[in-house]
Amino acid sequence: MDYIDSVLKGVEERNPGQPEFMQAVTEVLETLRPVLVKHSEFKHAKILERITEPERQIMFRVAWQDDSGEVHVNRGYRVEFNSAIGPYKGGLRFHPSVNLSIIKFLGFEQIFKNSLTTLPIGGGKGGSDFDPKGKSNNEVMRFCQSFMTELYRHIGDDTDVPAGDIGVGGREVGYLFGQYKRITNRFEGVLTGKSINWGGSLVRTEATGYGLVYLVNEMLKGAKKNIDGMTCVVSGSGNVAIYAVEKATQLGAKCVAMSDSSGYIYDPDGIKLDTVKQLKEVERKRIKEYVAVHPSAKYVEGCSGIWTIPCQIALPCATQNELNAESAATLIKNGVVAVAEGANMPTTPDGADLFVKAGVLFGPGKAANAGGVATSGLEMQQNDMRMQWSFDEVDHRLKNIMKGIYTNISESAKEFGFENNFIAGANIAGFLKVANSMMDQGLF
Ligand code: NDP
Question: What's the pTM value of the predicted model, to 2 decimals?
């Protein structure tokens, strides 16, 4: 058993029953072998053992009352994973599937993603098994207030700056911020994803989807290919998916499919995004309603079938492990050129392996969806300066950050013998900055 295997064994023994966390740790550590050969000082300082153990894990009870007066109890989480390069930063996820393993996998990924943005932000993640779906605004507000009544003592603009994720959008961030301000009497940039009227950044809503497509564009340019005219399939119809479709369409691609957790729509003439925005952002309806407006489109029940639609660009933007080896093989057979992860860890490890082996340009989530947190970092900068940049200013910075990420991951992959393997490149580039910072700061 080599050193990396023995670290993985130790992590598994200390974290039983946490498959998502183990999957994320294994995926990163497996690509770090050549780094450890070159940097034996990391082994001596037990950087791998330390980086896989969160600095702090907070779990708490969240009791709240529904509109009929009935009391409910949920569990809240905040995992403050690594602060070597800046205050902890990462979203809050409200979804019934949330557990410690999921929050730790997301927090672990966030360390390297945040490092890749070049901004001074550490890694963290949090959330709750609360399901905002089907709840009234007042119920969501009471839940958020109860959640923040515990969380506020652990966060702050120089300590830990949460943001949104699945189930936490502008409405939830507003209620959370309001309660933080009420308790602390401080108006500070403690949360990102805020509304434009009270400290939010322009482009934050679009940032993850736009950034994803900027990275795809760079990968394609690096391979002397052009996004213009390519057919694109995007899973999900939430925040990331919608703005990925918007930017891909602006750059000349034709997006023909989107989905939600019930099924997918296929519109061979190109998705009419205005309809999707109306259904999802305004009316909060199911994606299948799209075919009532556009009868030439088709709705298919079930999600994974979306990957059988022939395309050159595939963008999984829904959830973890939504694209498996079978779907990857079908996409490859149908001629996919680029796959980039808008969601966190949407591709199973064997699926990702197939893409890399087939020479498909594969952008892993920690690089491809880093535009969201990068723009949150830009929101923090604007809050610190008490000012607001224009849409074009933020978009320009986002584009440059995504270009920089592409250069960084492709050069790191090459340097360590993984040419064109952007999974390895992203892991190595993200890791080196954090590991070197941990070395500088002594044992912690
Ligand atoms: P949203 O909640 O806005 O949207 C999620 C979308 O995925 C919804 O359309 C949802 O459908 C769909 N979905 C959920 N589960 C499945 C499933 N099993 N199969 C198919 N579709 C499914 O979330 P976001 O768009 O914000 O986030 C999506 C992903 O991107 C997550 O992995 C998140 O961690 C990641 N991410 C998000 C960032 C951001 O800035 N928003 C930043 C970086 C990463 P339904 O409505 O039916 O639930």
Answer: 0.95
